[in-house]
Please model this.
Amino acid sequence: MTPSISLTIRDFRPEDAGAVAAAHRAEREHLVLSAEALAWQNAQPSPEEHFRTFVAELDGRVLGAVRCGVVLGTTTEGVGYANGSVLPAFRRRGAATALLTAAERHLTGHGVTELHTWMDDEPASLAFATASGYRLGRAMQFAGRDLTLPLPPAPVLPAGVELRPAADWAADPHPVFLVEADAVLDEPGSEVPMDALEYEDWLRGDWTRPDRDLALSVVAVVDGEPAAFSMAQTDGADRYWSAFTACRREFRGLGLTKSAKLESLRLAVAAGYRHAYTSNDTTNGPMLAINAWLGYERCAGERKGIKRLERPAGREA
Model:
């Protein structure tokens, strides 16, 4: 459908954060994203990522946005991402198409030839993806848990293992980074190998997020060294998000991620959070089993959309 003449696509402004977050979360209670985190993300310098947020405005009202950039942390060149959303009442008016078009144009100007996006796993979104030239890739499962219900009893930790808050590494998080850099090398389902994760990029884009709660994030330590973790993000009100749970490959099979994730949830309950959400690739059997043991139940799904881009003649706008 051709966009309304009143539809404007423009760059994100700090005052857009609340409306963009609302569009992102609309009919998606499993997505935990605060306006503060959005404003922070758009204020970060990203010379290699070329991060940019485009906003769709209709008759002066922000009705959606797309966040896009070059995928970092991989030796595979030319891969970008674009993830966005539009308020349900304003869908099928051309806003999503216009937002993705703006993202594609921006990223092709920075050498992106393959664009990845996530679509809600429901017929209308998937039909839109295929009609827009995206082939469907892997599937993700979201799951939620009512934190007012009892948690399972904690398993006995192996000898030499202790659980500590990630805040203990606030002054020097590099040992925690090493866990993630090792774990992502064989992350289930990933179409792009994350084989070149850089510490500075991780610090800027993950560790220092304003919604990352280091007091609720838990690190499993083996003989004094971080071996696994469960990172938490929150909305500052009552919703908790399991941002990433990882274990160094040499320590797998000891139940460290299971214990770390349970302890993180226990801390979240004590801090007053009442709703927990997590996500996994649908082929990640071990983590799906852990989440089921923790009491999570599937609540939504996503599918990856992948599109080949051709660099247009002329300069990037």
